[in-house]
Amino acid sequence: MRPVKNYSNFFWTNLATLGPVGYLPAAPGTWGSLAAAVAAPWLFIPFSFLSKMLILSGLFFLGAWACTAAEKKFGRKDPGQAVIDEVLGQWVTFLFLAAAKLPLLVLGFFLFRVFDILKPWPIRSSERWLPGGYSVMLDDLLAGIYALAVLVLLDRLILQTYFQGFF
Q1: What is the pLDDT of residues 75-134, one digit of tens each?
Q2: Which ranges of 2-80 would DSSP assign to H, the alpha helix?
Q3: Do 71 and 101 touch, CB atoms closer than 8 A?
Q4: Residue 147 CA to its chain's centroid (Å)
């Protein structure tokens, strides 16, 4: 007799892993961030600020639920296959972009990856502040806020001054 599948857990785990993206070899978080950066010009950046905030809020809560399911499936805290948190952090980085300009997307991608990997204070400790998938989402939210601040600073102080029109 064939075992009955838990379709709810299947759905949430696939959301957490972005389908096959979380299973890509070597650095699934980078693949998840890349998928988010590639999708952002169509699924995030064109929207109004209020819509973006609603998208990010929904992503935080749905992602937390999905990461909790992934933790149960993979049997460990913050499994590498769960990359929905990278989408949240990457899109937070792009929050103030009004247009999808390739140099800013690339710079934002790298800035987010740096903060997500290095986890400066209080990002690392935030992984213990909330239960389950919420902590998985929170550290990437904070890394995205750091990357957003640096991206805005670089854009305002350097890029628009010296490379006006290009960015």
Answers
A1: 888 888 999 999 999 999 999 998 888 989 999 999 999 999 998 888 767 666 665 889
A2: 7-17, 28-43, 49-74
A3: no
A4: 11
Closest CA to 115 of 91, 80, 155, 146: 146
This prediction's pTM:
0.88
Task: Supply the pLDDT for residue 4.
Answer: 45
Q: In this structure, are residues 15 and 68 in contact, taking their beta carbons and an 8 Å threshold?
A: no
With beta carbons less than 8 A apart as the criterion, state whether 26 and 73 touch.
no
Q: Count other C-beta atoms under 10 Å from residue 78's C-beta.
A: 17
At 126 the pLDDT is 61
What tokens appear for 110 in the block? 């790298």
Cα–Cα distance measured from residue 63 to residue 82, given in angstroms and rounded to the nearest whole number? 9
Q: Are 127 and 137 spatial neighbours (Cβ–Cβ below 8 Å)?
A: no
